[in-house]
Amino acid sequence: MRKLLHLFENNKKWAAKTSESDPNFFLRLSKQQSPQYLWIGCADSRVPANQIVDLLPGEIFVHRNIANVVVHTDLNCLSVIQYAVEVLKIEHIIVCGHYGCGGIKAALESKEHGLIDNWLRHIKDVYRFHQKKIDALENETDRFRLLCELNVVEQVANVCHTTIVQNAWKAGRELAVHGWVYGLEDGIIKDLDVCITGPDEISAIHRMK
Length: 209
Ligand code: CO
Known about the structure:
With about 210 residues, this protein is α/β, with parallel strands linked by helices.
């Protein structure tokens, strides 16, 4: 109960296997990380960032929370973005949602869930912004899928509205913010083609001079 021995066993085997294929792997990584991507994804156990884009430790900087939400005042997420952009000099931020997201589903309901309702309300806002478009769909599954996508689009915008991203652009840095959605049923990522690469592509009210 107090020791999860099987996980330590797994870990030993994994470390041995990794060292076998690349003897300097851990030594090299222990000295520095230089990932090229920041991943902002859902905490769902079925959407592990490294595995689904087949990247090794050290290759992707990751922040995950329920329903991949980027809240303007979330110091946790903002600190991750700041470190990724200003210290690691990452050039690509990926917001990756997924179909079948429990957080999005819960936000579509009017049931009370406790503390998490305060988090899910941000997704209800996304629904409210696009209510006409979502309600126009007859099928409930389609409405659910569309909100999963629109939530990603909204969070991509939220990333771009941060002073962190805008200051990077102001300094002439190359920085692209991508919006993707992952399918639990087939393991395939779809690019929502909402990539933003500069201040001209965000709404004027959010653009800082
Ligand atoms: Co989810």
